Amino acid sequence: MNKVSQEIMGLLGISLGLDQAYFKDFFEQNDSILRLNHYPPCQKPELTLGTGPHTDPTSLTILHQDQVGGLQVFADEKWHSVAHIPGAFVVNIGDTFMALTNGIYKSCLHRAVVNTETVRKSLAFFLCPKLERRVTPAAGLVNAANSRKYPDFTWAALLEFTQNHYRADMKTLVAFSKWVQEQESNNKLIP
């Protein structure tokens, strides 16, 4: 998965007018996460969510979902089910990459829904920078037409924030940015 994510990062860099190696180099050493998700059936699926609406705080998510489905993305002001395509991955942009691109690429708001009969399983690879790596956009992505949107931070700081101070949702990066600014104004060190 690391190799696949590196190739995707190279293509995303090119799409932004950066060198193909820019993001590949940034993520060459990384602290990525692999997670198996298990969603048991629920007799009243309309009353619960497998995972509530959120954006991933990571940089990139590569998801392999089973044939049960249940992943939904929010676009055009409504939820859309993501069909299972055998042998295909679903790729989502996360908050860290949104910060790295100064908001040019947006985090994907999504959720997982359960069903009444079948267990749903998915395997998610989350591309993350090294814990101590400073997340800051490339100079060419900040200009008069696209002013700086987010403060510099480390992946360790965002991870600590989402684990100890704030449950990931659709406004995680905005809440984190405010938290960073508050910490800095109070002269508290951020990892």
TrEMBL record:
Pfam families: 2OG-FeII_Oxy. It comes from the Eukaryota. Gene3D superfamilies: B-lactam Antibiotic, Isopenicillin N Synthase, Chain. Residues 29-129 form the Fe2OG dioxygenase domain. This is Fe2OG dioxygenase domain-containing protein.
